[in-house]
């Protein structure tokens, strides 16, 4: 995007609804909206929260320029008084969010907006656009890095990303999820993350022979000498020529600090094992073997199972696009409206699909850890004014199957509130950490998951439960709505 102000990054119906509120309702009526998702991406056991930093910048820049108002006037559907309102628009509400890098689960609010209804409505599309995309890529990166079992994973999918923003913010999200760096130089500049790279086949092909190309590259970058060995013949030409260059560097007294080869085609398991043998026999046991070529978490895990000797992974298309699961599916739903007494009146959306019935009210989320292991037991969604004492027993139950219950004994668990305020009264009150600090936090977050939840196929589901008070409010609203529908003769719930 060329412009920082993304105010018109919205769906038209947000603006038409705003005008409807402006004409027909109290435009200052305070409401609560929740942004959440219903299913983990990639059929996984968790997701990784990302996008808060860009969300903050979006809200801080939220205003209508004269050319924005003029454009909207030209559509012929907005009245002059409403356009005058937009010209003076400011966001004055509160926003809460789960910090970036936190592992999250379905149905819990990732972002909560408490604001006048017109303001809360306007920000829907941008919030979902930002959080959905970046959380998706951070989650995919976490899966890829988990499959790599501690090996370094580099993101280098910029040329395959769906546009500059997706490539740059996607790379940032990938680093949050666990990647050690990116090939995207703009991402490196903007977010102070490591940038890494080798060279292309065109570099080799532009020289008279492969050895000369390798030698020239090694002379230029002796402390970052990773040579692409599959341009012609990996084992008969590429690896032997790389070994020749490494020997010459050692003979010249050049420290071999970071050096090795990259494989970009062929049978990566077989080639890496043969290359490892050749490098070891030549006296280079610490040489890196990096691999690329349409990798994802499943192929990396398969190569690991086959005994591949790859120590560094470059992942592009499948990561930056989350190719097998290209959308996150986050939604933004009204949860409460403030009444005349200053208290929130809970609102609920119904559906024939029980998983799509929303959780009403102004809510908070507590994460419950097993005190001994430090692992996550469950997440608890509750009303915002509820408090809990770790010295009391805590009853957990599945809100969809409430007969399934667990009683946690006093002193056996720890609680942590997940959401933090990022805006109060329209002013930012949160400083986003540096990306590499978020990455470290995300690694620690993933360590709180049981291995059964982290596995790539058929993971264990972490329970997201409702407090007893919130559950009672939800059931009461469902019964009220059911009675109203029955009284009016309606038989279907949309």
Distance between the termini: 37 Å
CATH architecture of the largest domain: Alpha-Beta Barrel
Number of helices: 17
Strand content: 15-25%
The outline comes out as globular
Mean pLDDT: 95
Based on DSSP secondary structure assignment, what is the total number of beta strands? 21
Helix residue percentage:
25-40%
Count of distinct structural domains? 2
Radius of gyration: 27 Å
Could you state the CATH homologous superfamily of the largest domain? Answer: nicotinate phosphoribosyltransferase
If you consult CATH, what is the topology of the largest domain?
A: nicotinate phosphoribosyltransferase
Oligomer: single chain
Secondary structure category: alpha/beta
CATH class of the largest domain: Alpha Beta
Biggest sheet, strands in spatial order? Answer: 13-12-1-5-3-19-20
List low-confidence stretches: none
| Main pleated sheet | 7 strands, antiparallel
């Amino acid at each position: 995007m060329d412009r920082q102000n993304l105010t018109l990054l919205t769906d038209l119906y947000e603006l038409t609804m705003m005008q409807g509120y402006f004409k027909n309702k109290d435009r200052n009526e305070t409401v609560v909206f929740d942004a959440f998702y219903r299913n983990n991406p990639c059929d996984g056991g968790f997701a990784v929260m990302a996008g808060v930093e860009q969300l903050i910048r979006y809200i801080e820049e939220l205003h209508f320029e004269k050319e924005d108002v003029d454009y909207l006037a030209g559509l012929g559907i907005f009245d002059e008084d409403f356009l005058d309102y937009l010209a003076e628009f400011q966001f004055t509400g509160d926003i809460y969010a789960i910090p970036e890098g936190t592992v999250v689960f379905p149905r819990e609010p990732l972002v909560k907006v408490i604001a006048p209804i017109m303001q809360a409505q306007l920000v829907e599309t941008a919030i979902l656009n930002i959080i959905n995309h970046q959380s998706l890529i951070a989650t995919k990166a976490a899966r890829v890095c988990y499959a790599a079992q501690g090996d370094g994973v580099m993101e280098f999918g910029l040329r395959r990303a769906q546009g500059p923003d997706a490539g740059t913010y996607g790379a940032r999200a990938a680093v949050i999820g666990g990647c050690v760096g990116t090939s995207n130089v703009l991402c490196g500049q903007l977010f102070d993350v490591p940038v890494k790279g080798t060279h292309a086949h065109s570099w080799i092909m532009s020289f008279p022979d492969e050895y000369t190309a390798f030698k020239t590259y090694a002379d230029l970058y002796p402390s970052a000498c990773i040579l692409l060995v599959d341009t012609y013949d990996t084992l008969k030409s590429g690896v032997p020529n790389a070994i020749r260059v490494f020997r010459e560097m050692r003979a010249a007294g050049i420290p071999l600090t970071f050096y090795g080869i990259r494989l970009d085609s062929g049978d990566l398991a077989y080639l890496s094992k043969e290359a490892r043998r050749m490098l070891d026999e030549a006296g280079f046991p610490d040489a890196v073997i990096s691999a690329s070529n349409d990798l994802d978490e499943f192929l990396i895990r398969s190569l690991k199972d086959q005994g591949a000797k790859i120590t560094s992974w470059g992942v592009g298309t499948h990561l930056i696009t989350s190719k097998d699961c290209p959308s996150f599916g986050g939604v933004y739903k009204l949860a409460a409206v403030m009444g005349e007494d200053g208290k929130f009146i809970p609102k609920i959306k119904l559906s024939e699909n029980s998983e799509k019935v929303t959780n009403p009210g102004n809510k908070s989320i507590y994460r419950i850890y097993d005190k001994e292991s430090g692992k996550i037991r469950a997440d608890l969604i509750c009303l915002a004014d509820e408090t809990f004492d770790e010295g009391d027993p805590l009853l957990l139950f599945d809100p969809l199957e409430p007969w399934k219950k667990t009683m946690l004994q006093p002193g056996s668990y720890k609680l942590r509130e997940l959401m933090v305020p990022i805006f109060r009264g329209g002013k930012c009150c949160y400083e986003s950490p540096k990306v590499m600090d978020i990455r470290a936090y995300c690694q620690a977050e993933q360590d709180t998951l049981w291995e059964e939840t982290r596995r790539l196929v058929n993971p264990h589901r972490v329970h997201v439960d409702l407090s007893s008070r919130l559950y009672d409010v939800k059931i009461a609203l469902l019964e009220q709505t059911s009675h109203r529908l029955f009284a009016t003769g309606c038989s279907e719930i949309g």
